[in-house]
């Protein structure tokens, strides 16, 4: 999928992760100082390859690489909440979807890209007409990301103790998202 973000003028696009094409890139990104504290996946390359293969084989989620103006710069895990551990923490609907993300290269941090990318991915997930809620559970220490989720339209629900972190459960409802972002539009026919 691809769109030109009206607010920033950036071309934002996503494509699904491919093991051989993305292994070294994602392994490198998971070793970045700003990623390690929140993801804790700075494994050796063989261990990371096995981990990534397991993620790709997991049918409850889809992994994406995000691009800005044709350059790869972010990693996304989009998942069905009912099949995720998160379903143990709230009254999940069968069509709820969730998002995990990070920016890989440090040069893309602080450039105003997080909100346009999150807004685009959230709108994309809402293309599944039965989905009325997108969920997230950012690490409670990640104040910058929590702020971006809130700006996008996610509302804090409660702090939750997950196996790997203390997270803030957040919900983004379809009606409030599209009331806030009336002009989000993209073509699913265009691919990177």
From TrEMBL:
Keywords (A to Z) from UniProt: Acyltransferase, Antibiotic resistance, Transferase
GO MF term set: acyltransferase activity
Keyword Protein biosynthesis: no
Cross-referenced InterPro entries: Acyl_CoA_acyltransferase (IPR016181), Acyltransferase_MbtK/IucB-like (IPR019432), GNAT_dom (IPR000182)
Superkingdom of the organism of origin: Bacteria
UniProt xrefs under Gene3D superfamilies: 3.40.630.30
Pathway assigned to this chain's UniProt record: Siderophore biosynthesis
Span of domain N-acetyltransferase: 12-175
Function: Acyltransferase required for the direct transfer of medium- to long-chain fatty acyl moieties from a carrier protein (MbtL) on to the epsilon-amino group of lysine residue in the mycobactin core.
Entry protein name: Lysine N-acyltransferase MbtK
Naturally occurring in which organism (per UniProt): Halalkalibacter kiskunsagensis
